[in-house]
Design goal:
Aminopeptidase; binds zinc ion; 30% helix; 432 residues; alpha/beta
């Protein structure tokens, strides 16, 4: 069984989110690079740079976006909106502009949320050349009819799309894919929680001897997954299981969105872990929108990749606003998400098929010291009951996870009992 994470992991994950939080990320550019460089301080991340204009299936790697400053100044020269106060103030991928205009004209480029008047919304315009500012509705209402100076010091030029990849080699070439998006600016749950969870999971696994090989991707959402898939089409054949991690730091219950197939081993492993935990959870069927599982589960690939979240995107009011901040993500929620991921990996790593070496009637457990000495009890201890389940279904056709599901018992117990029975010569592990 894989050892649990350190008890202070949740706080360490939160600290790393706090370090990454101020960076203005996007689907390309220096903010994304800076983020990958920080991840690289913790794990030997391979950073790839794909040139602008590279065709990736039906898409093209876009121009690279970088931004240094942006503001709206009133006629007195005061910055009434300042990019340096929040990078959400600028519509992500805004084209550069320097202009003077009256409020009425400016308003066509302003975005706010009347329902949450203190929050700044997060808006993007990746594939349409436009510019805009986001501000709290309160700030919008305070803007007087005035002559404003508008300035966005951004560049959209030929450059690269960056992504990070960490490959952890196991005994088998078969892979488990762990993917997260790292393209949102100062947003914690949506983006950074997935980044730190993938990072801490990879660090934890790197200290172990593993059956599967693990591939961790830190990529810009959608275009990053499309780019990676287009460059690794052959390699995807090795992916046996996968999880997209997003929104894993809020205090809500864990939610698992199934793979396109819905019945793969990763689906069953995740559902098993959640079912046997003491916390509340929710299972969702696959839908073709959401995070990068959309690309991994596109029909040409149809990879067994699900998505693990706490509260899913769009279901928490802070989603895509300035309120998705360091208060929304909690150390204990991050630690719980990490513990669940480790438990899921534990199932994948240890899920084997066994063969009962004494299949003709039940073996006599008592003479091997495996059965209680005194007969007549009605409360059959869990371990003995588990032995009967394992012995009966170790016919070379059922994996331990299948036995655990059928018996309604935790995987760890099935695995432990299988090991005891194997030690006593009653069971052998099937090859493969
Ligand atoms: Zn998002």
């Amino acid at each position: 069984m894989i050892a649990p994470a350190k008890s202070d992991a949740g706080q360490a994950m939160h600290d790393l989110i706090a370090e990454l939080y101020p960076i203005c990320r996007s689907i390309t550019g220096d903010g994304l690079r800076q983020t990958l460089a920080i991840v690289q301080k913790h794990i030997p991340l391979n950073i790839h740079e794909v040139p602008t204009g590279t065709p990736v299936f039906d898409w093209t790697v876009p121009r690279e976006w970088n931004i240094r400053d942006a503001y709206i100044k009133n006629s007195r020269g005061d910055r009434v909106i300042d990019f340096h106060e929040s990078n959400l103030h600028v519509v992500n991928y805004s084209i550069p502009i320097r202009a003077r205009m009256r409020l009425q004209e400016l308003k066509q480029h302003l975005h706010s949320m009347p329902d949450y008047p203190d929050w700044i919304p997060y808006r993007t315009s990746y594939y349409k050349d436009t510019w805009g500012f986001c501000l709290s509705h309160r700030q919008l209402l305070e803007l007087k009819d005035d002559d404003y100076e508008v300035y966005i010091d951004s560049t959209l030029k030929d450059g690269h799309l960056s992504y990070g990849e960490y490959y952890l080699e196991g005994n088998r070439a078969d892979e488990v894919l762990i993917s997260c998006h790292a393209c949102h600016p100062s947003l914690c749950n949506d983006n950074l929680s997935g980044v730190v969870l993938a990072l801490f999971l990879s660090k934890h696994l790197s200290a172990l001897s593993l059956q599967y090989s693990y591939r961790f991707l830190f990529i810009p959402g959608s275009i990053g997954a499309i780019t990676w898939l287009s460059r690794n089409r052959e390699r995807t054949r090795k992916i046996k299981h996968g999880i997209v991690l997003a929104n894993v730091g809020d205090p809500g219950k864990l939610t698992y969105k199934k793979t396109r197939d819905g019945k793969t081993e990763i689906d069953r492993a995740v559902m098993h872990v959640l079912k046997h935990s003491t916390s509340d959870y929710e299972i969702m069927d696959f839908v073709p929108y959401g995070y990068d599982e959309r690309q991994y589960c596109s029909p040409g690939f149809n990879l067994p990749v699900g998505c693990l979240s706490r509260t899913p995107w769009g279901r928490f009011p802070q989603y895509h606003t300035s309120a998705d901040n360091l208060d929304l993500v909690r150390p204990e929620a991050l630690a719980d998400s990490l513990a669940k991921c480790i438990a899921i990996v534990n199932v994948l790593e240890n899920n084997r098929t066994c063969v009962n070496l004494n299949p003709y009637c039940e073996p006599q457990l008592g003479k091997r010291g495996l059965y209680r000495a005194l007969g007549g009890h009605t409360d059959v201890p869990n371990r003995e009951l588990t032995m009967f389940w394992v012995l009966n279904f170790s016919d070379g056709q059922h994996t331990m996870l299948e036995i655990a599901e059928r018996a309604g018992l935790p995987f760890d117990l099935i695995e432990e009992v299988s090991r005891i029975l194997a030690d006593h010569g009653l069971l052998k592990y099937a090859l493969g």
